[in-house]
Q: What sequence folds into this?
């Protein structure tokens, strides 16, 4: 089996993770997998199926890693970048990682490793990226208010 991309890290306070993308078998098939290691427990996950947390034998830190990155992916899928506000895609990703991994976010190395895993998962289409465009829908302008109607409405007491 040959590897075109490989990323293996220990996320301080969480677990060890190896991400292997587009590994090819002798028969010509390709596979992308994640190997999650928590203490003496090791689980392999098929990344072609996404970051599923319903895999048997996952420990709590493994589920946290998978669900946290899935949560970040959902935020990025719905959040669009608005250049005018000065917020960059990187800012959005780091904020989403901080929300998804509050304890790991207190450790600069852990946050950096999670960011590199997020980038690798995005580059290999496992997780979405934020889309360029307007982040918010501007509210429609309020219709003109007829001042005479407003005075009449205010003058009438409401029944109790």
A:
């Amino acid at each position: 089996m040959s590897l075109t991309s490989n990323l293996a890290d220990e996320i301080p306070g969480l677990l060890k993770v190896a991400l292997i993308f587009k590994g090819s078998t002798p028969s010509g098939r390709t596979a992308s997998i994640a190997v999650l290691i928590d203490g003496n427990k090791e689980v392999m996950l098929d990344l072609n199926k996404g970051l599923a947390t319903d895999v048997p034998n996952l420990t709590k830190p493994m589920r946290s890693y998978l669900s946290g990155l899935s949560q970040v992916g959902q935020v990025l899928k719905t959040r669009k970048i608005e250049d005018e506000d000065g917020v960059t895609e990187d800012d959005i990703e780091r904020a989403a990682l901080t929300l998804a991994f509050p304890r790991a976010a207190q450790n600069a190395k852990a946050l950096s490793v999670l960011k590199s895993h997020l980038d690798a998962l995005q580059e290999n289409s496992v997780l979405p990226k934020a889309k360029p465009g307007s982040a918010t829908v501007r509210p429609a302008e309020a219709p003109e208010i007829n001042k005479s109607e407003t005075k009449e409405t205010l003058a009438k007491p409401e029944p109790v």
